[in-house]
Design brief:
- The complex is a heterotrimer.
- Helix content of chain A is 46%, strand content 7%.
- By secondary structure, chain A is mainly alpha-helical.
- Chain A has two domains: 38 residues; 131 residues, Orthogonal Bundle (Cytochrome Bc1 Complex, Chain D, domain 2).
- In chain A, α5 packs across α7.
- The N terminus of chain A is likely disordered.
- Chain B folds into three domains: 197 residues, Cytochrome c oxidase-like, subunit I domain (Cytochrome C Oxidase, Chain A, Up-down Bundle), CATH 1.20.210.10; 133 residues, no CATH class; 127 residues.
- Chain B contains 18 helices and no strands.
- Among the domains of chain C are: 109 residues, Cytochrome c-like domain (Cytochrome Bc1 Complex, Chain D, domain 2); 85 residues, Alpha-Beta Plaits, CATH 3.30.70.
- The mean pLDDT of chain C is 84.
- Chains in contact: A-B, A-C, B-C.
């Protein structure tokens, strides 16, 4: 300040100044930690910006699973559960199968047959030997995976595979399964592809 | 006019700067103090409905729904905003070392602003509220407030533009951002919600929450901390400590703080409250960082604090840290299960408005007024009393609300406890809280009295001043020019 | 932060980002929302208000009712619940053992933390009895089959949980679709009074609403609600009493020869309150309505 100023001004400390320094490391580290924690929280609770997901639901899947089931929906949900615990290990939860292990169910002509009778034989009795699926030859050795399941579960899982991954075919009822089970009898023997082809669809 | 003078004669003396702010500041502060008193009184009237439910059964204007809304808006738009704008103008002029550019503009703006607040308050009391929280003022009032803010911003920005030192001081960051903040958020919210074609459904509420957070958390922090960072170093006579913290706090505040606002129980898709919770978590950083700057600046200072401005501002900064952390807590999903829809939120808001912004602004006004008017406060003792009434009153007002809110929330959460019990538990806390409100009101009266008497004294001495202007051509300048504006300054 | 421009730019970018996220984003996502369909039904939701109820929203706004009341139900969870409804020919004691052994297998099956398996120790056969509540719907259907096989009837339902729902304030949480036709949307932020999102379900009687507005304590003993007498006119009974005059208990009624008649505003407000219902199951807030359950 100039002398001239001192004459006309009341004594006053000058305008404040600031010491120069940079932000300390610790606060940057804390910020990064909080960013990471917040990111995890965002990932788990945001429902990924879905407009239908409201807290307390955290994802679309969770919301789907809590929907009240009626008729077909309930059948499908049950079929999905059975499929994933019993069939999905080999056929894959995406229904695409595993090379050398199990053929794809998605798009398979066996699965989408008009009737479900032939198809129902496969889980109830198993498959052994040559079978052609989707133009590819397979040498199968599938056990009777569905033999121990109740009729409702087999019907549900068949309905599920017939209407998932782009497949479209009619639902299967527990009565259908019951008939096929009676046909096979108490001690099921695995069928081969040619045997199966002889059966009505 | 005086602009060229300023540029030629760079080292302008501070009393001249102060004098150039006299009219706009009197207009802004005088109105602010009046609205503060009215707002607090209306707040007490509103609370009466809880002590005696049928008190206003035949009088619609004073029921809780009307009076509380009007009182809240009076505190924010009537008191905090104009007072902060006045302080900002003065700080900008001082830091720029130039006289206020276009001093007549803020005088006009102040009157527009007060007119807006008046129109808004009356409309709310007679049932014309828009129904959007913190945006209740009708279109006419909102336009007035917006125009007035723009005018004051122009004057402030011009003053900043003519500054002698090019480098910005930390307060500049906060206050400059604050000017932009209000214009944008208030403008957006009003365009969407008070305009002709409001969006459908819950989007209205989302925009409302966005605005509320931007005003009550970000804007108050920007203005309050910006002002505190100017006065604290000035009072203790030390430079502001650790500007690195300040810069970091500023950036994190504006980048993260502005995402807060959507309450966890809002009926909107989960991502909105989750994003807000994320922002709230990160907002802890600026609160702590800015608190550290203030603490480091103040610590070891041998400045007595007996109810003066220093006390006000220290209390304000402390309130900032505590109230902001409580505010952030509201957005934690787990805490919100207890705190949502309780008096806790009311308490936090009042703490932010009165304990933080109100305290810092009172301190700033008491610091500025003697300089601007060129004489001591008429009732310096009342100013001290004001501090103790304000500090004690705010705590007595807010803390019962916080405790009562938590207790109410615990009871609301347990469905086996009848709802009436949950409400009743809050009532006994409300009784203490209203006592606190009364103390704050008394404190506000001290402020009003000081400003009022100072204005009257100044008006009486005006004739003498005019004579001295004629006599002494040296002091002739912008300071005593706008005589036509004198009458407007009354409001 | 050396120049004014850099400060301006930082503030502009910061506020702009949040504007995009919290104003533009929701506007894009929810601003164009249309009516949705009620779950397992073809009914549209929400139902648009008509006549007095539409005007009542503005009375609600003008009087600042939202200062003390919320209009939103909060939910903290959801569960698949299996309830025993008919035990057929079985005796409670026999079924107890059967159920307990069944449930024993369930707790191994499910790992969900919010699973509640009923404790049947003190059960004497009273119905309906909730025996399982948890997130896993396959467990519910499996248990249901097992009971069906032995001739026991059960009911599987999806319910929303939380304090608000336990208080009877709603059957599910409020979601954006409920407010589609509200303008202004008034959620409220303080529960000095009870939540009103479903007051039209709890108190569907217009006369009850009117009397409650005029003299809250004549209907709810401990109510802290202020009386809204200014929404009513007290006038001398003419040749015949007005048909819409309130029927009040003695201590709340005006002097003899006078009657209390609601103004248009009061009628509109009551109509609005009666129209408040957030009780249809929606995809984003599912539950099994009681009427639809078998």
């Amino acid at each position: 300040m100039s002398d001239e100023n001192k004459n006309c001004c009341s004594p006053e400390t000058g305008e404040p100044t600031a010491t120069r320094s940079s932000a300390p490391m610790w606060i940057i580290v804390v910020t990064l930690v909080l960013l990471f924690t917040g990111g995890l929280f965002l990932d788990s609770h945001s429902g990924w910006f879905d407009k239908n997901v409201y807290a307390p639901y955290q994802s679309r899947e969770q919301l789907e699973s809590i929907q009240p089931k009626s008729g077909e929906k309930q059948l499908l949900a049950r079929g999905k559960a059975v499929y994933e615990s019993v069939c999905g290990i080999c056929h894959g939860s995406d229904g695409l199968g595993k090379p050398g292990q199990a053929p794809a169910l998605a798009g398979s002509e066996w699965v989408m047959a008009k009737g479900a009778s032939r198809l129902a034989h496969i889980p109830l009795a198993g498959v052994a030997g040559a079978i052609q699926v989707g133009g590819k030859d397979w040498n199968m050795n599938m056990a009777a995976m569905g033999a121990a399941l109740p009729d409702e579960d087999v019907a549900a899982v068949l309905t599920y595979i017939r209407s998932s991954w782009g497949n479209k075919a009619d639902a299967v009822t527990a009565d259908d399964v019951k008939k096929v089970r009676a046909e096979i009898g108490k001690s099921p023997q695995p069928y081969s592809g040619s045997q199966l082809l002889k059966m009505p669809e | 006019m005086n602009l060229t003078e300023n540029n030629e004669n760079k080292a302008i003396c501070s009393s001249e700067i102060d004098a150039s702010c006299r009219l706009p500041l009197l207009a802004l502060f005088g109105g602010a103090a009046l609205w503060l008193v009215l707002g607090l009184a209306l707040g007490i009237v509103a609370m009466l409905s809880f002590h005696q439910p049928d008190m206003f059964a035949d009088c619609s204007c004073l029921t809780y729904g009307h009076a509380q809304t009007a009182a809240n808006d009076l505190l924010l738009y009537g008191f905090v905003m104009p007072a902060a704008l006045g302080v900002i103008l003065w700080i900008f002029a001082r830091l720029s070392q130039v006289t206020l550019v276009l001093p007549i503009v803020p005088v006009v703006a102040a009157n527009l602003w007060h007119l807006g607040v008046f129109v808004g308050t009356v409309t709310i009391l007679f049932g014309g509220s828009t129904g959007h929280p913190w945006l209740e003022y009708p279109r006419a009032a909102a336009v007035l407030l917006f125009a007035a803010f723009m005018l004051i911003s122009v004057s402030a920005a011009a003053t900043l533009g003519f500054r002698t030192h090019r480098e910005l001081y930390p307060s500049h960051w906060f206050l400059l951002a604050g000017l932009l903040w209000f214009v944008w958020s208030y403008g957006t919210a009003n365009l969407f919600l008070v305009g002709n074609h409001p969006p459908r459904g819950v989007v209205q509420a989302v925009i409302g929450w966005w605005l509320t957070n931007n005003l009550l958390f970000v804007w108050l922090a920007l203005a309050g901390i910006g002002i505190a960072f100017y006065f604290l170093p000035k009072i203790v006579g030390k430079p502001l400590a650790s500007s690195g913290y300040a810069l970091f706090g500023f950036l994190t505040l504006i980048f993260f703080g502005t995402w807060v606002g959507i309450p966890p129980s809002a009926p909107v898709p989960a991502w909105l409250p989750t994003v807000s919770a994320f922002g709230a978590l990160l907002s802890i950083i600026p609160v702590i960082a800015l608190g550290i700057v203030a603490m480091k600046t103040v610590c070891c200072a041998k400045v007595p604090c007996v109810g003066g401005s220093f006390c006000f501002i220290k209390f304000g900064v402390l309130s900032f840290v505590v109230s902001s952390l409580l505010y952030i807590g509201e957005f934690c999903p787990r805490a919100s299960r207890v705190l949502d829809f309780t008096w806790f939120n009311v308490g936090v808001t009042q703490w932010q408005l009165l304990g933080f912004a109100g305290m810092i602004l009172c301190g700033a006004i008491y610091e500025i007024l003697p300089r601007v008017m060129g004489k001591e406060l008429p009732f310096a003792k009342l100013a001290k009393l004001n501090f103790f009434l304000f500090a004690g009153g705010t705590l007595l007002f807010v803390i019962p609300l916080l405790i009562g809110g938590v207790e109410q929330g615990m009871k609301l959460r347990d469905a086996n406890i009848p709802f009436a019990d949950a409400s009743a538990v809050a009532l006994k806390f409300l009784r203490i809280s209203t006592t606190g409100q009364l103390l704050v009101l008394l404190g506000a009266l001290c402020l009003l009295l000081n400003i009022l008497v100072m204005t009257i004294q100044w008006k009486l001495g005006l004739v003498k001043t005019v004579v001295s202007v004629v006599k002494d051509s040296l002091i002739e300048g912008s300071a005593y020019q706008p005589l036509p504006g004198d009458k407007e300054a009354k409001s | 932060m050396k120049t004014g421009f850099s400060v301006f730019l930082a503030a502009f970018v910061a506020l702009g980002l949040s504007w995009c996220g919290l104003v533009y984003g929701p506007l894009k996502q929810l601003g164009g929302a249309q009516e949705t369909t009620v779950l397992q039904s073809t009914d549209k939701w929400p139902v648009q208000r008509t006549g007095d109820a539409t005007l009542g929203l503005q009375v609600y706004r003008a009087n600042g009712c939202a200062a003390c009341h919320t209009e939103l139900v909060h939910q903290t969870g959801a569960a698949n619940v299996l309830t025993l409804t008919d035990i057929g020919v079985h005796k409670a004691a026999d079924l107890k053992d059967f159920t307990t052994s069944l449930l024993g297998t369930v707790s191994e099956l499910t790992t969900a933390s919010n699973t509640v398996v009923a404790n049947l120790a003190g059960w004497n056969g009273e119905l309906p009895k909730v025996i399982y509540s948890g997130a896993d719907d396959t467990v519910v259907s499996m248990l249901g089959d097992k009971f069906k096989a032995v001739g026991v009837k059960t009911e599987a339902r999806v319910i929303a949980t939380g304090a608000d729902i336990a208080r009877g304030w709603g059957t599910r949480q409020s979601v954006a679709a409920d407010y589609l036709y509200d303008s202004p949307v008034q959620f409220g932020s303080l529960r000095a009074g009870p939540d009103l999102a479903n007051i039209g379900v709890r108190a569907p009687d217009l006369n009850w609403q009117l009397q409650h507005l005029y003299a809250p304590r004549s209907l709810v003993k401990n109510s802290t609600m202020p009386a809204f007498r200014y929404l009513f006119t007290v006038k001398k009974i003419g040749a015949q009493p007005a048909p819409d005059a309130l029927v009040l208990p003695k201590e709340f009624s005006p002097a003899t020869g006078f009657e209390v008649v609601p103004t248009d505003e009061a009628r509109q407000l009551a109509a609005y309150l009666v129209s408040l219902k957030n009780n249809a199951p929606l995809y984003e807030a599912p539950f099994t309505p009681i009427t639809a359950a078998k």
